[in-house]
Target: Sulfotransferase
Amino acid sequence: MENKLDVFRRELVDVQGVPLFWSIAEKWAQVQSFEAWPDDLLISTYPKSGTTWISEILDLIYNNGDAEKCHRDAIYKRVPFMELIIPGFSNGLEQLKNMPSPRLVKTHLPVQLLPSSFWKYDCKMIYVARNAKDVAVSYYYFHQMAKMHPEPGTWEEFLDKFMAGKVSFGSWYDHVKGWWEKRKDYRILYLFYEDMKEDLRSEIQKLLKFLEKDMPEETVNKILYHSSFNVMKQNPNANYTTLTKEEMDHSVSPFMRKGISGDWKNQFTVAQYERFEEDYEEKMKNSSLKFRSEI
Model:
């Protein structure tokens, strides 16, 4: 048995041109052959784009706003991270095998790496996208505390890696654009983190319509309350404090750090901003996808 700590801080491994954790790459055949069920709901995001937030909202919707039911376990057990395999710590594929239907399934995979069974069964999917600059900042702090990632280096070094797509799950640009295009052909509800921050009630209404569910206003109000940043930050079943310090060290940076839009302004220098914007324009010029960098 390898030393448990040897599984962390290792270099990423390319899978079809996308950098992934070494342990996912090793078990890639198992990930690819994952068998979705027709009533699975897939939650897809690029990392640090509101994944835990949308997962908590959907678990609340699936449990009709009953917060007690949503306290049954940690979010990463209620909504398993399908492709995450860390020997001795986590195996999303095994977790999902043992879950009752209907399952909520989380992925960070870019659209071209998603197991084909999701397309075969035309599963409903919800994608949440967040503006690139806030994602880069959040991902930098996440790398510091979440040990399955390689060491991030300095902010300047990390920003270079992020812009080049040399971080786990690859290029943010390819990720958001790939899922945006795919929504034209499949049942994908594409949401924006900034819209959720601005008016969560109307985004929840979109979710309910997409899921063909009716809910009284009183239940929606409960969901709004229990999925608010401050309540989730205090909720051990949502804030990842139930993981070991080897996996995530909250003393370095909390998993739920700020949860705001526009925090990039506290991190980017003027020179970094200008370089980033120029690169962004080039990479996004042929896409109809538009983001707000603050609200």
